[in-house]
């Protein structure tokens, strides 16, 4: 398994978006702030040319990805799943493996179910998950908080969207620095 002990580098990363869907999202804790954070994260990752994989849990029941994110990620691979873990879908897991990336940035809902199980499976598969803690949530605060604690204890790297975007930028001379700075304002 890869273990990131230094900085997270853009060339090593893929982003996996987990189940940010219409019928569940209104019930999620702090969903307006979460939506704003997710939009900023996705826009910033796109500036860094990070590959994106979109996962959707049982679309017939839970719906599509929320509209504000759907317009940003429509051109990227989408995988529907019924397993809680995104790795339980062979096509989704193959897409992650075939990317050649070893660092998997995770964001989505619900932290204590689908995000948690995805991160645990990614660890088992030899990937280094990076959890964007202000871009995950659950219906209940305690569920979210305990899941984040558990994931950190098993080796998932916690970060925030702003910290991650600047870490990927590395230098104020990076051509995307000004756009990243504007995004996080």
UniProtKB/TrEMBL annotation:
Keywords assigned: Hydrolase
Every Isochorismatase-like domain range: 14-162
Keyword flag Hydrolase: yes
GO MF, one example: hydrolase activity
The organism's place on the tree of life at top rank: Bacteria
Protein name (database record): Hydrolase
């Amino acid at each position: 398994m890869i273990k990131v002990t230094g900085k997270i580098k853009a060339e090593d990363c893929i982003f996996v978006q987990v189940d940010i869907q219409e019928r569940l999202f209104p019930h999620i804790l702090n969903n307006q702030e979460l939506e704003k954070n997710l939009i900023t994260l996705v826009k910033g990752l796109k500036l860094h040319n990070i590959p994106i994989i979109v996962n959707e849990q049982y679309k017939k029941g839970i719906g599509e990805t929320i509209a504000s994110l759907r317009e940003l990620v429509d051109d990227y691979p989408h995988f529907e799943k019924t397993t809680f873990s995104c790795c339980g879908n062979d096509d989704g897991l193959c897409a992650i493996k075939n990317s050649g990336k070893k660092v998997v940035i995770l964001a989505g809902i619900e932290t204590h179910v689908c995000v948690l199980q995805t991160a645990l499976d990614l660890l088992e598969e030899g990937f280094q998950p990076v959890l964007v803690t202000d871009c995950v949530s659950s219906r209940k605060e305690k569920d979210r908080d305990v899941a984040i604690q558990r994931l950190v204890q098993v080796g998932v790297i916690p970060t925030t969207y702003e910290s991650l975007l600047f870490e990927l930028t590395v230098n104020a001379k990076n051509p995307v620095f000004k756009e990243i700075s504007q995004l996080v304002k």
